[in-house]
Amino acid sequence: MRVPQIVAFLALMLVFEQSIAQKKDLNILIIHVDDLGASDLGVYGSDFYETPNLDRLAAEGMLFTQSYAAAAICSPTRAALLTGKYPARLGITDWIRAKFQGYSTSGKEGEYEIFEDRPMKTPKIQGYLPLEEVTLPERLQSMGYRTLHIGKWHLGEEGFHPEDQGFDINIGGNDLGQPPSYFDPYISSNPNPHYVIKNLPARQEGEFLTDREGSEIINFIQNQENRFFIHWAPYAVHTPIMGPEDLVKKYQNKQPGIQRNPTYAALIENLDQNVGKVISKLDQLGLRESTLIIFTSDNGGLVGNPDNPVTVNLGLRSFKGYPYEGGIRLPTIVSLPGQIPGGASSDIPIITMDWLPTILDFLETDSNVGDGQSLKSILLDQGQLPERDFFWHFPHYRGADVLPYSIIRSGNYKMIYYFDGEGVELFDLVSDPQEKENLVNQLPFLVSEMKSKLERWWEKTNSRLPVLKEN
Fold first, then answer.
1. Digits of tens for pLDDT over the chain (471 positions)?
2. What sequence ranges are listed for the domain Sulfatase N-terminal (predicted)?
């Protein structure tokens, strides 16, 4: 063998060995924030909130501009992330009520909620993530990963908590959808024995909850000898909206933009600070280049009181809980230095279910599972994916103006189908990103085609559907 051939062979072997080492040593950190809106980070165009650490993370990795939650509310998206499946396939299509709330909307398939003043009865939901589902942490445990869940869980009561679904350690996760308080000892002003964060005993009065989460993660990381998977699901930035006093004062003295809530701004900046602390620890330990970081949210930003909004989803229509882009579009950043190019951006539509196959693909194991697609080729090579349709399903009445609906996005078009006779909305998201012009009358054939796709998807996923009440 000639010298140039030997050099080429050795170089090829070095690349192969590096690939094996990267696969062997890859750690995974998912930061799955609660209620963070699509424009709530500086890098995504916020006109008020400051997020220097997350902006830096985007500069070191890839930012997605058309990233979708699996649902416009939390529990369904969380179930989708852990299983890679559409919420409709799991029967978890609404947020799961916690025990302290004293009522339930959960039930078996074929059971319904009935409203006196509504024309349809709507299906009850699966009230927990079934143990039969093979979750991402269970898959990683089988590969030798040490697994940590920290923060919000919201996928069932006792017996269905993180430690029952593949996590070696659970700090803070139970049936709660929001914290009683953000300040240690994390107790509500109206105490309830069921309204308590699990495995998070008081340790320093007044310590802010997201600071505590960040501290616990750092403690976990620096005591690991094996590969690890961390599912960090901050209770931030969900209600009750609270923030560290110094940061609240900072934003009270700052010129507001369209976004203008100083306490919410403090809550976001505190989250950003803790993301920065965790990344700094990874750097100090020499783990940054072997840790895949996925930062995303579970649904769009919450408006709350329109006269004093929690946040504003700049450039998008509506907010959490609604079928418009403001309810389902997310900020999403992915970083793996040395492999994912820094400062990259992708406008390819993606969705929550994609993260499970993406992680499995990075680990070079079977990624053909669930309803998502691996994004590895996009992340490493800025490649493309075959065009696909996206679906959402919320067959419930909620509040005065949320009607049972399903959504399909096909290419640039998005159709919202309302079950109770309120009609159909069709939007071109490229020419009309704020969903102002309903094209249903101009494009009746497209509406018919998309409705047929939706019906086939309902059947494929065994979706629970609302039905008209009998007279």
1. 454 454 344 344 334 434 444 455 899 999 999 999 999 999 999 999 999 999 999 999 999 999 999 999 999 999 999 999 999 999 999 999 999 999 999 999 999 999 999 999 999 999 999 999 999 999 999 999 999 999 999 999 999 999 999 999 999 999 999 999 999 999 998 889 999 999 999 999 999 999 999 999 999 999 998 999 999 999 999 999 999 999 999 999 999 999 999 999 999 999 999 999 999 999 999 999 999 999 999 999 999 999 999 999 999 999 999 999 999 999 999 999 999 999 999 999 999 999 999 999 999 999 999 999 999 999 999 888 999 999 999 999 998 899 999 999 999 999 999 999 879 999 999 999 999 999 999 999 999 999 999 999 999 999 999 999 985
2. 27-363
| Strand partners of residue 113 | 122
List the CATH number of the domain containing 463.
3.30.1120.10
Give DSSP secondary structure letters for 2-29. -HHHHHHHHHHHHHHHHHHHHHHH-EEE
The CATH number of the domain holding residue 175 is 3.40.720.10
The C-alpha angle 463, 466, 471, rounded to 5 degrees, equals 150
Distance separating alpha carbons of residues 388 and 339, to the nearest angstrom: 26
Residues 6+ apart with CB under 8 A from 191: none
DSSP state of 48: S
What tokens appear for 306 in the block?
């329109």
Beta bridge partner(s), residue 31? 232, 295
Q: Are strands 291-297 and 62-68 parallel, antiparallel or unpaired?
A: unpaired
Instruction: Report the 10 Å Cβ neighbour count for 451.
Output: 15
CA angle 72, 74, 78 (to 5 degrees): 115
Task: Tell me which residues are annotated as active site.
Answer: 74, 154
* 413 lies in the same domain as 316: no
Query: Is residue 178 classed as helix, strand or coil in its secondary structure?
Result: coil
Evaluate whether 142 touches 108 at the Cβ level (below 8 Å).
no
Range of the domain at 441: 393-468
Written as one string, the DSSP assignment of 359-399 is HHHHTTS----SS----HHHHHH-------EEEEEE---BT
Burial of 151 (0-12, 13-18, 19+ CB in 10 A): buried
Task: Give domain status of residue 2, yes or no.
Answer: no
**Is the pTM value of this prediction over 0.85?**
yes
Q: What is d(CA 376, CA 65) in angstroms, rounded to the nearest whole number?
A: 17
411: how many CB neighbours lie within 10 A of its CB? 14
How many structural domains are present in the chain? 2
